[in-house]
Amino acid sequence: RRRHPMMMGLPSHLVLIAVAVAAPETTVHEQIRSALATGEAALQASRWRASSDAYERALHLMKHHKLQINVAAESQLTNNVAWAAFKLGDHERALRHYEASARSCDSALREGFNECLNKVYDNLHELVHRTLRRRGLAIDYLREGLASAKRAIDERGLDEAALLNLDGNVRVRLGYLLVLHGELNEAESTLGPLLRHALTNTTGSSEHGLFTGPNVEKRALLQEAATYVGWSRAFRRDWTGASDAHAVGAALALPRDASGCTLPRWRVQDGWLTPERSWTVHPLAVKAPILRFGNVVAPICAVRRRFGAKDRPGAGPGWCGASEPSLSPGLARLVEIPNAFLGGKDGSALWQRAPHCVFFAGEVTSSGAPPPDWGDAAANSGLTDKDVVLQSEPEDTITIESALLLFDAREGHKMFWHHQTESVSRLALALCRLFDRDGKAASDLPEQTRNMLSRAVILFPQALTATITALLQRGHATTKALERQRRLRAYDWSAGRVYSIRAAFVLDWPPAAFAGTADAPGGPPSGGAPRWEPRSRRNEENWIAELASKAAAPYGRRYKESLFRLHFVPPGILRTQAAFLRRAFPPDRDAKPTVLWYSRRDCDKRHVKSEDEVIDALRTRFKGRLDVVSWAGGATPDAKRAAAAWSRAALVVGPHGAGLANMVHCAPGTVVLVLPAGDAAGAPSASDEVFAHLAVALGLDLRFFRMAEPPLMFHNYSKFDQSAVRAVANEAWGALFPDEPPPPLSPYGDEDDDVEVVSEVV
Fold first, then answer.
1. pTM over 0.90
2. What percent of the chain has pLDDT over 90?
3. How far apart (Å, rounded) are the C-alpha atoms in residues 590 and 583?
């Protein structure tokens, strides 16, 4: 989660302290005051060069004339100089002044001036991590920030509560970076004290919940800490621990005012099929369509037929020349919620007011990581802390009679993998299953529901705009009908805005059974959706479980298996999306098959440092047979562009990344070779299961390379040596032409490989 860097002018009392010396005042004092005033005015006007020059002049005058300066004021001044340098793009100078500001802040903290800590280290985080992309160095700076706070608290004789109140923001920033860096033990030891302090120092009954009392402060910060602990547990594949941590985060995001509520507290609704509910669930059977498109030959089949290659026995679905594998019908749910409200920066906060007092998490559930904007006051103008937004009509309320909401409860629509597999699936279901080409609702729904849905606005996240625009340009009949009737509306957010909807409709589905094999990443499959147990007041085997048992509602879900499987869209629905996109953006029957390299060179994690060498090796291997196409920008929604490129691919090669969700455009039988990522339990990571699930649903031939040192989820792939590059090229060749030895990469032949990079069928 991103906060804006701190840039503030000097408080008046610090300005006076900065220049106060023994009387009488001199011309120097006037010059300093003038420089400070000029710097402040320029700062507020975003005139960075003028601001920087003025503040540096003030500092120079003070030091040159050996005037005493308060260390807090000095920290603030150098921080402002650094901020101006940052805005000017002079990062080296900015870093030098931030370091000076941190040194002054260390002394200021001992004297009781606490304000500098967050300002300095927020800005260091923004510069070093987000701009310079040097996560390790940012971690070192934030560690020093915590050490500085600890020294000051010890010298001042204060307790742990004072320390956590002082360094909480820096602590959460550091914990976040440590999780990304794979330093999970240190991450939890950094974040844990914040949450354990809340556990031991917050009063609350089991009936009302631990965090409903008025003495709980900084709930958004605690929610963030709980979320990162949940990530850490998920990277360890400790699913119950991750489930507990996310349940704590959800509890922290709920409002405290339960006036008029049937129950003594607000609650999170996991799933839809509870005995007592104020909503209606309409089951929707979705028949999985076939994926053949007219007489277009799948690229993999065209390649094998042209060059006389045969399917390798037991490898992949053996689709060429065979009947397409059938799938059982998918099960979707159309949920009808009366008197609902939608809010949050990403439209992920969906609730009913009193007397129901419920937030909806859907089938992703509160254990699957609630979105940050549930509890982020900056995103919601105090959505969960100012009950005026929840219990009465705010000034900025958009009232809609009925609306179909194409959102998920986790803001996944702004993360490309979730966007493509979940949000676009919802769009496809709406346009294929819920509405006919005239925009009328499906005839198998109850009459009252059908009438409301036939007039409903389709409210969609901004990320779907490109896909809907492309459908309109293609002349898609149902989309055009809804557009003519002015029923397509993008979600338009501003702070404090709430959508009030008399009849809200949500498309959802139960998590799919894992469709992989026993050798797939993440352990043997359960044969069903992730198993869970009801949360109880007895889940107290460790501190995070104890915290969850006291904070979360007892009727929530506590998962025993991979939380990533909560995002598995049923295979029949995935195939519905694939067939829908294929009809809307049909493959070019005259296009030549290609080898597609999925590039992440435009990403800050999991990009392949040896990408150019790998692409050159692939082009040498396939010269005279197939063109090798490098495809970047995979995480930017562009259905037309993606369909044109991925539908031509006989073979896809690339690293773990969200852009692989574009596999939905591939023809059945396409081979996909993935460089895996790792988690704390090994490689491929548990999250790599999502690729296996998608491949099985769409009839693709998915394989993972076996690598000696795969990167962690938020790292990059290290530089490959020549033998590793050859091994990748050899595996790619063998995937298409298993009975032919690969041609040499040089006219002098290939050296013997001394590394093993082998692909395994999943």
1. no
2. 44
3. 17
